[in-house]
Amino acid sequence: MRTKRAGVRAVARVLGVAAVAAGALVVGPIGEQVASAAPLACTNVGNAAGTVSAFTLYDNTGYSGSCITFYRYGNCTASTTDTEGLYNLNGWGWDNRAGSVHTAHSCDVRLYDARDCPSSGTRSTWIDQSADLRLGSVNWQNRASCVVVS
Fold first, then answer.
1. For 83, which of 5, 18, 27, 107 is 20 to 30 Å away at the CA?
2. Ramachandran angles phi, psi of 26, nearest 5°
3. Can you say how many angstroms the Cα of residue 61 is from the centroid of all Cα atoms in its chain?
4. What DSSP letter does each residue of 103-128 carry, written as one string?
5. Which parts of the chain are beta strand (E)?
6. Could you tell me which of 44, 146, 20 has the C-alpha nearest to residue 104?
7. What is the pTM of this model?
8. 8-21 pLDDT, tens per residue?
9. β-pair partners for 129
C-alpha cells in the first residue's frame, strides 16, 4: 500500500509541474481574461537559455485559438529601421493562418504575403499588438507568410 501511495504522489507532482509549465508558456496581454479553464500552450520556436519571446501568432482574433511563439536573444530596439529577425511561417505550418499577433520585449512585426520577405510581396505597417489582423483597408487575417521583426 505504501508503494501505491508514493506512486500516486509522484504522479501528482509530475502533473503539477506539467500544469505549471503549460501555464508558463501562455503569452498574451497582461490582465486579459481567458475564457477557457485550461491555459493555452503555444508551440515554441527558438526557446533556449537566454532567449526572450519576440511575438506570438494566434489562429483567431482576440488572441485565441492555437498559437506559436517565436523567441530571440535579447530585447528588440525601439527603432523600426533595423531588421532583428526574419521568419518564414511555412516551415512551422503557419503560412496564411494568423488572426491576431501579440509582441513582447520592445519588438514590432511587419507581415508579408510572400515567403521570401522582405524581397517581395505586399507588406503591412509595423504592428505592436493586434487582436484582429483585419487592419484598416488591408486585411492581414490568414494572409501572412513571412514576418520581419524590428
1. 27
2. -70, 125
3. 13
4. E-TT--EEEESSTTTTSSS-B---BS
5. 43-45, 51-60, 64-73, 85-88, 100-103, 109-112, 129-130, 134-135, 138-139, 146-149
6. 44
7. 0.72
8. 333 333 333 332 23
9. 102
